[in-house]
Design a protein that fits this description.
Layout (H helix, E strand, L loop, with lengths): L7 H11 L19 E2 L13 E6 L4 E8 L2 E6 L4 E5 L5 E5 L7 E5 L2 E6 L3 H9 L24 E8 L5 E11 L8 E6 L4 E5 L8 H9 L9 E5 L6 E6 L4 E6 L5 E5 L13 E6 L26 E3 L1 E10 L2 E8 L6 E7 L6 E7 L3 E7 L2 E6 L3 E5 L21 E5 L2 E6 L4 H5 L1 E8 L15 E2 L6 E3 L2 E7 L5 E12 L2 E11 L2
Parallel strand pairs: 1-26
Antiparallel strand pairs: 2-25, 3-4, 4-5, 5-6, 7-8, 8-9, 9-10, 11-12, 12-13, 13-14, 15-16, 16-17, 17-18, 19-20, 20-21, 21-22, 23-24, 24-25, 26-27, 27-31, 28-29, 28-32, 30-31, 32-33
Length: 503
Amino acid sequence: MFGFWGLPFLAALVLLVAACSGDAGGTIAFTPPPRANVLVAAPPVGLCAEGDYCDLFDVGGELTAAAWLDDSRMYLADFEGRIRLLNLETREVTTLLTGLSVPQGLTVLDGRLYVSDMGNVCRLIEEVSGDEYDNGCLSYPDGTQGLFYNRVNAQILSYRIGDSGALDDEQIAVDRIISFERDHSPNGLTNDGDYVYASIGNPQLRVGPQEGMELAEYGLRTELMGTIARFRPPGNEVEVYATGFRNVYGISIAPDGTIYGADNDEKNWLVTEGHLEELNAIVKDGFYGFPVWGTNEAPPEANVTEPVAVLRGTGSTFAYANQDGVYVAYLALGGDDNGFVVDRFDYESWTPERIFRGRGYITAILERDGLLYVVSFLGIVHVINPAVAPVQGSPAGVSADSPGYDVYIHDNRLTYIKNPCSQADADTSFYLHVVPVNLDDLPEDRKRYGFDNLDFRDGWKMGDSCRVMRELPEYDISVIKTGQFVQEGTGFRHTWEAEHRFR
């Protein structure tokens, strides 16, 4: 049998055959997959209050940061260098700003939006070398290593917030920050109502004192590498708040004023099993142990502040602190825990409690009215209730007793709900085939097939319940066919299916 992904038309044909028990002569016999319920109605209310998945905003792009403008609007930064505004009430997404490099931190203070960005490498190279732009900024100052200028002059910018959230009056708050790559650069931003705090990664430049002095002579802020730095607007004079970090991505401030951040630097990180991450309570003048240039361990005389918790995983991206504890996003490793998760650590025992398991890097966590807004690099903002019971592990494979999801059609959206469910119910691939009333409404590359192939892998498990939400195309729809499937060799098998005809 041919593969599912390569031949959408064959997939549609198999769907049509699977709806029957055999041909007219009875020569084809097989057991069709279970049928799921389709309800043209709003999904049940109150599920979020009971600890279920609350909502999903699929805004597209590759989201890197988020910050509240007010109770119903959220700024979003993305890998394409845009700043957009999501209105939670209308679900409208508006592009406000383009042309940034890689914005990775957002925070709002005193009517201005602060943005950490990779900055303009060409401008700085020309300035310190005196050379004209050459072949995409590959002209480096004489006597220096091009490595240092691969990604430099990262910046923290600010914009005045105008009517309807519009942004203008760009100003540079901090510039000349060294960054070698996207993951070791100015990352998360937060504020305490007075200072703006920035987590700045260590680009791990293995340079000696002489080279370090040369970099400083060019005006590069070598002292900010691997730090939590802060500045107070409008003067924006920068000071180092804490040091010894490898790469803290997202930070937040707890009610008691402590900053929390997760760092991919468990002590002696080069030899630690699994390169485990650490969760740090960051205090002023603290040193958190990451190597100085050219070494693999902290100096013996250093007074290293120990982490409050070690994360059983890697790729930590965000720490959000509130009165209930610190919510930490990272890539859990091992067994049923594989995948990106959010764990809650209480302030006393620092014992993790699994709150959320999803797919794709989590780049921000925000809160409003007791709900968490989990922002994914995949372009999705998930709304969850952190009061949910911990997410439990589940056996691999598709649930043997699974009749599939209940599928609700309401407000041009599909909502899939299964309760109870296993993690496999969330992880297994979904197919979604949509036939329009007018075939001319199809994208050009789909017209010869007669339907849109909108297959996806986007299930999310919260407690004992799984939920999926998908926006439908804007055109008038004739038929929707959906379900889940698993690969079996070069073929596939449907585990359940559902169909709805509008007319």
